[in-house]
Amino acid sequence: MTTSSVPTVSRRHGVGFWLVAYAFAVTMAFSAAPAPLYVLYQAKDGFGPFSVTLVFAAYAVGVLVSLFLAGHVSDWTGRRRVLVPAVLVNVLAAVIFLAWTSVPALLVARFVSGISVGMLTATATAHLTELHLTARPGASRTRADLVATAANLGGIGLGPLIAGLLAEYVGDPLRVPYLVFQALMLLGALAVVLVPETVEPVERVRYRPQKVTVPREARGLFFAAGAAALAEFAVFGLFTSLAPGFVSGTLHQSSHALAGFVSFAVFGAAALAQVLLARLPVRSQLRAGFTLLLTGIVVVTIAVWQPSLWLFLLGGVLAGGGAGAGFKGGVSTVLSLAAPESRGEALAGLFIAAYVGLTVPVLALGLATQFMPVKVALLGFAILLAVILVAVARSVTSGTPAR
What we know:
Blueprint: H1 5-32, H2 38-45, H3 49-69, H4 74-77, H5 80-99, H6 103-135, H7 142-169, H8 176-193, H9 219-241, H10 243-248, H11 256-276, H12 282-305, H13 309-337, H14 343-368, H15 374-399
Main location: membrane
Protein name: MFS transporter
Organism: Amycolatopsis acidicola
């Protein structure tokens, strides 16, 4: 490569960095876009909160299946060969949403969307890091990490906000949001086609599913970090599945835009907390995260018992910020425990715990609402998460390296 061509290469990778960030963000946004629309499906087809949680659980199952089977394949085939299909799979999910509105169709659409996200997250994060380091040789990874966080959690927050605004102020609320996101994702897929590849494809690789490897001597701390991740993602699951129903039912607020804003505020707070606390020692991130998360859970529970919309929003922001900071600290903890050659596998174990948390507690909460008032069910949910956090907080914060 000639000296004169180096700026051109750096420029192409720099532009490609932002194109991948766009595709990552809009695809993650679509993955959460149905959140404020569930109340419309419930009114149209007459199903209850437990069916909503089943639909949400189908998404998490799709992510887990895809994480095991395809989340690591781009290490062999190249990033673009996984990213483009991942985006297009979510376009297919949008087609299913447009074609049918019954519960079985929603289950299939959300499962397909989960398959896409499982393919996308690790691959897009790795691609962003590689594009950044090529465009800015010698730079730290901080910029890539922050943009990946913003695209991931920020995208998840923007999806319900955009869908809620479209549902509230544009006609045909069960079609227009999906058509808009389809167009945005197709542009994203086209953008990724134009991005430089950063991995040389390896021929004749024997396929194997993703493994989960944890150092034996660090399993106690690893499991504590996993339990914390379970509680953190249970909060995310609450605000992308049942929270819009709480807003419209318990809090008597029928605005779809408001329901979307609640989810946006939670995930926006999570992304912002990760950015603001990024320079703190890992222990400090974890302590701040656990404190904010516990406080937020208490405030949300009080808000539902009162009821109070503003307390509900405040509690959601506190809980989201705490979950974001705590999970970032958990990722740093696991990375510090794992050997360099098994970091991806150790992180896979942490994400499995997180997505179990995204599914099982919220599914139990949805089931509980069939037999008891929502207020009582949410109180039990809050107590369960608080017990988990209190039980693991000391282990995680004392066992984690200071930095």
